[in-house]
Design a protein that fits this description.
The protein is mostly helical and 531 residues long. Helices cover 78% and strands 2% of the residues. A two-stranded antiparallel ribbon has the order 1-2. Strand 1 and strand 2 form a beta hairpin. The longest helix has 63 residues.
């Protein structure tokens, strides 16, 4: 028994001797694996930190939105991709930044990069606003506005929310001619991203294209508040103010400052700067200089529709036969920009080309004829039915063409809208009735826009009412309304020499009507007003 017991104890000692090295090896393996895991986790953490830091820096630069800032954003993203090539949201941001350089700054080489980065972001399944917003904008660039709207609507039903998507929606609505809905979407996008200038810039430029200069200026001021050095915002604000008839000195300074930064300018920015300079020349009555500057703007970027518009206006002022095709070229570039049609028609009418003005308005009607807009009780109506500005412009052109009945029908349609331009439509219809010597029908229309308390806002309405009262033999009341007209015009900044000429015309009219005493009293009162 003893040998057996000794043999058994020897086996246990051998197992102990063998298990110790084995255990040490196992411990070593575990330690190596653990160290590797720790190293991996630490590395991944460092990568994550680098990616987050680069992404934050890229977003900050992209939000500033000048071309130099966008390029800096792309440089940050390129460095990020060296660390993590599969950073999906970074790929989406790179797609959006390149898209902005392509579409907003007219740099065609950025298109391929935008599409490539978007494809990678989609393959990696980025769920960011940049990915979806960029896809919608690419669809719009391809002329697929309806498809873009449907795409965005589907995202909305899935609960997607982002100012980038709202901005894309606004652009899609604009492309479809749904201007009122687009304005609301632009405003929502601006409110949702109030720190980023590109949103109020897009809003302001859409308002500018509609000829809503005051509202455009307010939106663009918000952009400069977000970034005082935003070049596009500064230039578009200067253009809006020039269209309002103010801000010449400020516009000249802005253009000088921007053009001095030549290395930072893209073709689109240079074209907009030269367009502002063309508008400034036109405001100063220098049509030849305006044509020269507009031509240089178009050489920088043929898509600058405001340069085309200013060129056409300059040609119209010169009564050049090229004005009509120039306006047609402008509306071809931006088919839903109401400014180009309505102000263009007015310019052609004043140049004596009534048929050209009518052709421009026919083009406007063709663009907006099938557009539907919301109406009460959940219904929709044709956009033209709610477009008083269009009907008022058409009536004025018809009147200039001596098509009195067509003009009256157009003014009635403008009045039927009962919108913000109601007073202008009442005045237009009243003056047409006065031309027909139908003073009794014109009087109630003018009474509303030229009340006896002098609180009306339209000097021309008071002048018209003064003429009507003179025609009816009511000279005292007529003088009172003419005086209100002069006072209101003075408040509106009409030059004193122009006002004195009007006062002299009224004085002569009174004298010719056998009212010498009243003419003398009128001269005394107006001299005191206009001294």
């Amino acid at each position: 028994m003893t040998p057996a017991n000794g043999s058994h104890g020897g086996q246990r000692d051998g197992q102990r001797r063998e298990s110790l090295p084995s255990a040490l090896i196992q411990i070593g393996v575990v330690a190596v694996l653990l160290a590797g895991a720790v190293t991996y986790v630490v590395h991944r953490g460092q990568v994550r930190q680098q990616v987050d830091a680069r992404m934050k820096a890229a977003r900050t630069q992209a939000q500033r939105d000048n071309p130099a800032d966008l390029r800096k954003a792309l440089a940050e993203l390129d460095a990020l991709f060296q660390v993590d090539a599969d950073a999906k949201d970074a790929r989406a941001l790179a797609a959006e930044v390149n898209l902005r350089l392509w579409l907003e700054h007219r740099q065609p080489e950025a298109e391929a990069k935008a599409r490539e980065q978007l494809a990678r972001a989609e393959a990696l399944d980025s769920r960011s606003g940049e990915r979806y917003g960029t896809r919608a904008m690419v669809l719009l660039a391809e002329g697929k506005a309806a498809e873009a709207e449907k795409y965005l609507e589907e995202l909305k039903t899935q609960g997607a929310k982002s100012p980038k998507l709202v901005l894309a929606e606004a652009q899609a609505l604009l492309a479809r001619g749904r201007l009122s809905d687009a304005r609301q979407a632009f405003a929502r996008a601006s409110e949702g991203a109030w720190r980023e200038p590109r949103y109020p810039v897009a809003h302001g430029e859409a308002l500018l294209d509609e000829g809503m200069y005051g509202q455009a200026a307010e939106a663009l001021k918000k952009a400069t508040a977000a970034n005082a050095e935003h070049l596009r915002a500064r230039l578009s604000l200067a253009l809006a103010r020039l269209y309002q008839g103010v801000g010449r000195e400020e516009a000249a300074k802005t253009v000088s400052d921007v053009l001095a930064r030549e290395a930072e300018l893209t073709p689109a920015l240079k074209a907009r700067a030269l367009t502002v300079r063309a508008a400034l020349a036109l405001a100063e009555g220098n049509t030849d200089e305006a044509l020269k500057e507009a031509g240089e703007a178009l050489a920088a970027s043929p898509d600058e529709h405001h340069a085309l518009f200013i060129r056409a206006r300059a040609l119209a002022l010169k009564k050049d036969a090229g004005a009509r095709p120039a306006f047609q070229e402008a509306v071809t570039k931006r088919r839903t920009a109401t400014l180009l049609y309505l102000d263009g028609a007015k310019a052609l009418q004043q140049a004596g080309d009534g048929e050209g003005a009518l052709a421009l308005l026919d083009g406007y009607e063709a663009v907006f004829r099938d557009v539907q807009v919301p109406a009460p009780e959940g219904k929709t109506v044709g956009a033209l039915e709610r477009d008083e500005r269009y009907w008022l412009a058409r009536g004025q052109v018809m009147e200039a063409l001596a098509r009195s009945d067509d003009a009256m029908a157009a003014y009635d349609r403008a009045l039927a809208v009962k919108g913000v331009g109601m007073a202008r439509a009442q005045y237009a219809k009243a003056t047409l009735l006065m031309a027909r010597k139908d003073y009794d029908a014109a009087r109630p229309l003018l009474t509303e826009v030229a009340p006896e308390n002098g609180m009306g806002a339209m000097p021309e309405a008071y002048e018209a009412m003064g003429e009507l009262l003179f025609a009816k033999g009511e000279f005292a009341k007529g003088c009172q309304h003419h005086f209100f007209g002069l006072s209101r015009a003075q408040l509106n900044g009409t030059p004193v020499e122009t006002l004195k000429a009007k006062a002299t015309d009224v004085e002569k009219r009174l004298a010719s009507e056998g009212q010498p005493a009243m003419a003398k009293a009128w001269k005394s009162e107006t001299d005191a007003l206009l001294q």
